[in-house]
Amino acid sequence: MRKLNSQFITTFVSETGLSGQNGTYYGFVEMDQYYCMAVAEGFDGDGGQESAKLAVDTAIEAFVQKPGMKAGRIRACIRKAHKRLQQQSVRIRLKAGILLLVSDYTRFRYGVCGNVMLFALRNAGIYHQSITHTRYQAMVDQKQIPDSESAPRQETENLYHYLGGNVRVTVSGKIKMEDGDLLLAVTEGFWSRVGKVEILDAYESIQSVGEFLGDLQELYVRGSTEGIPCCCLAAVEIKKIYQENRALKKKIIIWCVMIVLILAVVGTIAALYLRHRRRRQQEVRSTTAVYEDTGDGYLTDFNCLLAKQEYEKAVEENKKLDKSGERLEKEQLLSVKITVSVILEEADQAYDARAYEQARDAYKKAQEIARQYSELLPLVTRIDQQLKLVSTGMEIDTYMQNAALKEAEGDIVTAASLYRQAEAMLRIVDDPERLKEAQLALLRVNGLAEQEAKDERARNRDEVIVEADKEAAMDAILAGDVDAALEQYTKIRDAYIEMEENEKAEEITQIMLSLQKQSRAAQEISRESIEADKSAAFEAVLAGDIETALSLYAKVEEACLQIEDEAGAEEAAGLIASLEDAAVPEAEGDAASPEEAQAVLPEVQDAVPEAETEAAPPGEETGEKEMVTVEQRLALEQMVTPVLEQALRDTANREFEAAIKAYRKIAELYAELGDVTTADRMEMMARGLEKLQEDAASGGNEDG
Predict the structure, then answer these.
(1) What 3-state DSSP class applies to 127?
(2) What stretch of H or E contains 14?
(3) pTM of the model
(4) Residue 547 in 3-state DSSP?
């Protein structure tokens, strides 16, 4: 559309120069919306034509692919040409300078890199001239030389920036065109030889663009023919530019202004509304924050019910906010705080009810939730303190329960110690009711302790008496006086009953029963032994061994006395007297005649049971007892007493083997001391236990 309503005529002239190589290149393209022209000059060793052509073709091709008049678009096209030259620099390094002109048929814009120059001419004058990246341009900018004259060759070829090397693109602004304008792009070979004044003189008498370029060509080749470089002149004659519809543009501008005004009014109203709404939203946020902060304060003080109420108010207020991530986040946080408040309320109630395990679980649950939110982290420390109080409460409960158990078991000392520890801890946790309970319990157990101390003192006195009675019983047993021993044990049993030590009383009763059985068994064995001794004595009389007979009858007498058989003892004493009378002659030196032995025989024969058919082996002679010191006997009794007590307990518990060993151990000790009588008694007791053991094994009646 723009191209059809405008008229651009492009004309160019190219000179080879005396070198015979043309290092310049020119190209243009007309599009519906844009006009693009490129002029380049190459600097490679082969004349530069390849570099110039490659740069022009690449730049125009890049523009055609994506047309536009933006500075970035022009700069991108030139830089693409620069990269193309670098890619093609294989044999030699390709270098070139370029000027890229772009127009929308109303305005033009150009980009330059190197020493190609553009002149914009209008009404016999130059209204715009491009700059170059040369030392000459720097000298002109510094006003070292005027730009109206031809420039020194060595300065115009001295480049700062060019394609294929140190590239830098300078892009002009958008310059408006008019009908009749002429755009002239020339390479360095021309403008370094022809000044601006000469160009204007040729333009002043212009008849046509072709004639104008011919005049410029003549100026270029005038004078010496030595050292004439190649050059390219490209002219764009603007016969007609694209005329935009001003009326429509004005209407569009008016409508745009109206729309802008409407939008401004609407925007103002919207801004005022949004401002009011933001203010209202901010008020809601502030109110929510006040409720939340108040709830936080209550929650920190563990006034959970009031905290929950404040959080619920904050939730209701927060609902007035617009739906957004902020609102949802705040609702979630408030919901968490309400949950924590409820949990802590339950924990406090459980703590007040002394349900410490339930309170501990609730506090820990609230603490785990609080750790997940930074705003609730201060609450974690407060909950830690409550957990310590719960632990203390649980410890106090343990002390009180254990103290009650110890008190019930009768361990008053331990109970008092536990109550004191509970009292000390209750003073820390400040629980007056529980403290009073612990103090009353402590007073109670202290009273019980005092009473127990009194009872203990009385019990100690009774124990002393009991111990004395036990010693007397032991002495009676060792002396063979079972009745006296039973009498002492009866006193001991009654004393234990008075002391309410029923187990010990029962144990003494069992000892008494076993002692009675043991005594009866010993008496039976003693009778059997007496009969055996009588038979042996009778056999000794028949053999005329009066001394052995006397020893055996003395043993019989002693055994009868032990079993309280007075008749048997008197009978044995009579026989001993008869035998002693018969033995007198033998002592005087005359042996007893058989007639004298026959005279004593009837008395002895009457003492021997008729049922006895076999004579028992003669007993051993009883040696003289050695003299025993008081200290030896006391030491022996101290050794024997615990052994005898254990023997009595073993007998009561029917542990016959252990009891038998104990009695025989005692017998050995007394035999070593020389107390044969007591040793015989202990041996008799052991034999009685053996008989009881045999009866028990055979299923006999032990309680007879």
Answers:
(1) strand
(2) strand 7-15
(3) 0.42
(4) helix
